[in-house]
Amino acid sequence: MAPADPKRADLVVPYKAIPRAEDDVGLTTVSTFVCMAALFLRIKFIAWAAFILAASNLLNSTSAPNASPMSMAFMGIASLVSTYLPMFLNTPQSPNPQ
């Protein structure tokens, strides 16, 4: 017959909570705001600031399961692309009727 309690007291490992790393939520919020401002306003200075903040956010990210630093990096790249894209696309000029 098996014993009533199959656990052995010498094999029990007590639970020890791992402290969560402090995330810098302020930098993430500012980075998101600047990326969105660059996407909407298409100002080159703001786009470069968004790209630098996104790169900083990516390099300083921790391995938190709910954080997504790659999406922020893609937003920084998208802000640069949306700012410089009109320079490379030729839009047709409307004819001037005379």
Descriptors:
membrane, 98 residues, mainly alpha, protein folding chaperone, transmembrane, transmembrane helix, Fungal protein
Description:
One of its GO terms (cellular component) is endoplasmic reticulum membrane. It holds the Pfam family ASTER. One of its GO terms (molecular function) is protein folding chaperone. Keywords: Membrane, Transmembrane, Transmembrane helix. The chain is 54% helix and 0% strand. It is mainly alpha-helical and 98 residues long. The protein has a domain of 45 residues. Helix 1 runs antiparallel to helix 2 and helix 2 packs antiparallel against helix 3.
> Over all CA atoms, what is the radius of gyration?
26 Å
Please outline the major beta sheet.
none
Strand tally: 0
Q: What is the average of the pLDDT values?
A: 80
* Helicity range: 40-55%
- Percentage beta strand: under 5%
Name the assembly state. Answer: single chain
Overall geometry comes to: rod-shaped
* Contiguous runs where pLDDT drops below 50 for at least 5 residues: none
Instruction: Kindly name the structural category.
Output: mainly alpha
Order of helices and strands: HHH
Total number of helical segments?
3
Give the end-to-end Cα distance, rounded to a whole number of Å: 105 Å
In short:
By secondary structure, the chain is mostly helical.
Secondary-structure map:
Elements: H1 25-41, H2 44-59, H3 69-88
Helix pairs in contact: 1-2, 1-3, 2-3
